[in-house]
Design brief:
The chain contains two helices and eight strands, in the order βαββββαβββ. It is α+β, with helices and mostly antiparallel strands and about 130 residues long.
Length: about 130
C-alpha cells in the first residue's frame, strides 16, 4: 500500500463526479496521458485513472443523491478513523454532507463541508493493495 493510503492527514485520492463519464475519460486521457481501468462496483462502474501503473484518481457518474450538482473534482484525505473524524468535524462546526459510509473493498469515507462552505472527503482505507 502506498504511503498516502496509510498516512493520517495525507491527500490520497482525487475523484471526478460528472454527468458524462465517457466524455471525461476522453478529455483527461488526452490532456494528461492518463490510462483508465474500469472497475465494477455495486450499482455502478468506477473508472480508475492511472499515471504509469499507479492509480491517482477516479471518475464516476454523479450519484442519485447528488443529482443537480455540477461536475466537480473532490480531494480525499486519509484518516485513521473516519467516524471519529466526522464527529470531530461536526464539533468544529462542519456539516456532514455524506455521513461515514462503507465503500466495499476500499474503506470508509465521509464528505465534510467546513464552516466556510468548502467541501473535502475523509477516508480510512481498509483494503488497498
Amino acid at each position: 500500500m502506498d504511503e498516502q493510503f496509510k498516512q493520517h492527514g495525507a491527500f490520497s485520492w482525487c475523484e471526478l463526479i460528472t454527468t458524462d463519464v465517457n466524455a471525461a475519460k476522453v478529455f483527461y486521457t488526452k490532456l494528461f496521458g492518463w490510462d483508465t481501468e474500469d472497475m465494477s462496483m455495486p450499482g455502478m462502474t468506477y473508472t480508475v485513472l492511472k499515471a504509469g501503473n499507479k492509480g491517482v484518481g477516479g471518475i464516476m457518474a454523479i450519484p442519485k443523491e447528488a443529482q443537480g450538482m455540477p461536475p466537480m473534482w473532490g480531494a480525499y484525505v486519509t484518516v485513521d478513523d473516519v467516524d471519529l473524524t466526522a464527529r470531530t468535524a461536526e464539533e468544529l462546526g462542519a456539516k456532514l454532507l455524506v455521513p461515514p459510509t462503507d465503500i466495499p473493498n476500499v474503506g470508509r469515507f465521509c464528505v465534510i463541508q467546513d464552516p466556510q462552505g468548502a467541501v473535502i472527503n475523509a477516508i480510512t482505507y481498509t483494503n488497498m493493495q
